[in-house]
Amino acid sequence: MKLIDEIFEFYRDKLTGDDEDIDMLAFALLEEMTYDDLMNIIKDLDKQELYDLIGLYMIETLKGKFAQESYGQQRTSSPHSRNLH
Fold first, then answer.
1. Are 48 and 26 in contact (CB under 8 A)?
2. 4-55 tens-digit pLDDT
3. Which end of the chain is more exposed for a tag (fewer CB within 10 A), N or C?
4. Of 4, 65, 66, which Cα lies nearest the Cα of 29?
5. Number of DSSP helices (H) and strands (E) in the chain, helices first
6. Whole-angstrom Cα distance, residue 25 to residue 7?
7. How far apart are CA 53 and CA 60, in angstroms?
8. What's the pTM value of the predicted model, to 2 decimals?
9. To the nearest 10°, the Cα dihedral for 37, 38, 39, 42?
10. Contacts of 44 by beta carbon, 8 Å cutoff, 6+ apart
11. Rounded to 5 degrees, what angle do the CA atoms 18, 24, 26 make?
C-alpha cells in the first residue's frame, strides 16, 4: 500500500517500531483523516490489499468479541461449577 510505504519512509528513523509507537502513529494519522480520505485509500487498494485489510479487520474484531464473551462467562460462572480437586 502506497500510504504505508510513505509513512514507513518518513518515520523509519524517528520511531523504534515497537507496538506502542505504531499504535500511537496509526491512531494519530487516522484522527486527522476524513471519511473521504479513508474512502480514497480504500479505492486505491488492489484486490489483494483489500482482502488483507478486510480479513485483518474481521480477525481482530472476532477475536475481541470472543474475548469479551469469554471474559463475561468467566465473571458470571458459579463457584459450584468449578472442579476443586
1. no
2. 999 999 999 988 888 999 999 999 999 999 999 999 999 999 999 999 999 9
3. C
4. 4
5. 4, 0
6. 9
7. 11
8. 0.66
9. 130
10. 1, 2
11. 100
